[in-house]
C-alpha cells in the first residue's frame, strides 16, 4: 500500500509541475518548438527585457497586485478580528457568507461586478467610461478579502485570550493591545494571507477581463490575445520569471513560519522551565 501511495504522489507532482518544467526549458530553447530542444540560449530573456509593451503590462499587474493585497490584508485582518469577537452562532453565519465569494464562479463574480460598476458609474454618476483602474482595484480587493480572513482566523483562534486581557490590565487600550500583542501573535496568518492575495491578484484573468477599462490593462488579460496566435518565445521567459517570483515568495513565507514556530516553542519551553523552578 505504501508503494501505491508513493506512486500516486509522484504522479500527482509530475502532473502539477511537469508543464512548468516544459515551459522553463522552452524559455532557454533556441527553437520555437517546445517538443524539440535545439540548444541553450538566453536570448529569450534579452528579448523580454527589450519588449516595452510586455514590461509595461507586467508592471501594471505587479502594481495592482501589491495595492490590492496590502489593502485587502488590512481590511481582512480587521474583519477577522471583528468576526472573532462575535457570538459563536453569528460568527458561523458570517464565515459561511465569507466563503461564498470563493466558491462562486469567477465569471459570475466578474459579470456582476461589471454590471454594478457600469450602473453606478454611467447611471448614477454620469461617467462616460465607468470601468477603469479603480474598478479593477476594487474588484481585486473584493475577491482577495475572503482569503485573508481565512488565513488570519486560525491564528486568532490559536491565540491565548489571556494575552489580550493582560495587555488591558497593564493599561493598554483595545487599539494598543491589538498593535502591541495581537498583531504579533497573528502575524504568520497575516503574511500568508497577504502572499495568497498577491498571487491570486497577479494570476486573475476572468474577473479582471470584465471589470478593466482601456486605460489600464493587466498582463493576464493581454496574454489572452497572445493565445489566439503562436505564442512568442519571450512570453515563456516571462512566465518563468513569474513562476520563480511566486516560488521565492512562498519559500520566504514558509521559512518565516518555521522561524516563528521555533521561537514560540522556545519561549513556551522557557516558561515551563521557570514554572517548574518555582
What does this structure look like?
Helix 1 packs across helix 12, helix 2 (43-50) crosses helix 12 and helix 3 packs across helix 6. The chain is globular. The mean pLDDT is 84. With 278 residues, it is mainly α. The chain is built from 12 helices and no strands.
Strand tally is 0
Average pLDDT, all residues:
84
**Low-pLDDT windows of residues:** none
Order of helices and strands: HHHHHHHHHHHH
Gyration radius, to the nearest Å?
Answer: 23 Å
Largest sheet: none
Q: Based on helices, strands and strand pairing, what is the structural class? A: mainly alpha
- Fraction of residues in helix: over 70%
> In one word, what is the shape?
globular
Strand content: under 5%
Q: State the helix count.
A: 12
* Alpha-carbon distance between the two ends: 51 Å
Gist of the model:
With 278 residues, this protein is mainly α. The protein has twelve helices and no strands.
Key features of this structure:
12 helices; 0% strand; mainly alpha; 278 residues; globular
Secondary-structure blueprint:
Layout: H1 2-27, H2 43-50, H3 52-84, H4 88-103, H5 106-124, H6 133-158, H7 161-169, H8 174-185, H9 187-203, H10 206-211, H11 219-226, H12 233-277
Helix pairs in contact: 1-12, 2-12, 3-6, 3-9, 4-6, 6-9, 7-8, 9-12
Amino acid at each position: 500500500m505504501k508503494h501505491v501511495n508513493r506512486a500516486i504522489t509522484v504522479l500527482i507532482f509530475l502532473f502539477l509541475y511537469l508543464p512548468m518544467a516544459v515551459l522553463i526549458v522552452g524559455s532557454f530553447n533556441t527553437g520555437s518548438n517546445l517538443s524539440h530542444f535545439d540548444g541553450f540560449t538566453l536570448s529569450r530573456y534579452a528579448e523580454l527585457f527589450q519588449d516595452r509593451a510586455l514590461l509595461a503590462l507586467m508592471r501594471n499587474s505587479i502594481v495592482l497586485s501589491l495595492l490590492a493585497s496590502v489593502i485587502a490584508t488590512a481590511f481582512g485582518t480587521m474583519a477577522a478580528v471583528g468576526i472573532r469577537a462575535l457570538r459563536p452562532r453569528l460568527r458561523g453565519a458570517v464565515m459561511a457568507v465569507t466563503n461564498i465569494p470563493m466558491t462562486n464562479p469567477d465569471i459570475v463574480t466578474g459579470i456582476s461586478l461589471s454590471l454594478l460598476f457600469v450602473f453606478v458609474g454611467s447611471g448614477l454618476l454620469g461617467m462616460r467610461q465607468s470601468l477603469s483602474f479603480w474598478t479593477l482595484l476594487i474588484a481585486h480587493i473584493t475577491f482577495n478579502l475572503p482569503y485573508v480572513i481565512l488565513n488570519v482566523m486560525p491564528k486568532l483562534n490559536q491565540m491565548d485570550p489571556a494575552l489580550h486581557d493582560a495587555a488591558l490590565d497593564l493599561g493598554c487600550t483595545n487599539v494598543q493591545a491589538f498593535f502591541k500583542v495581537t498583531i504579533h501573535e497573528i502575524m504568520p496568518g497575516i503574511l500568508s494571507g497577504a502572499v495568497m492575495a498577491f498571487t491570486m491578484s497577479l494570476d486573475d484573468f476572468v474577473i479582471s477581463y470584465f471589470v478593466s477599462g482601456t486605460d489600464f490593462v493587466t498582463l493576464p488579460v493581454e496574454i489572452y490575445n497572445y493565445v489566439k496566435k503562436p505564442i512568442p518565445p519571450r512570453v515563456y521567459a516571462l512566465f518563468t520569471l513569474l513562476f520563480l517570483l511566486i516560488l521565492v515568495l512562498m519559500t520566504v513565507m514558509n521559512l518565516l513560519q518555521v522561524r516563528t514556530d521555533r521561537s514560540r516553542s522556545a519561549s513556551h519551553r522557557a516558561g515551563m522551565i521557570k514554572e517548574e523552578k518555582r
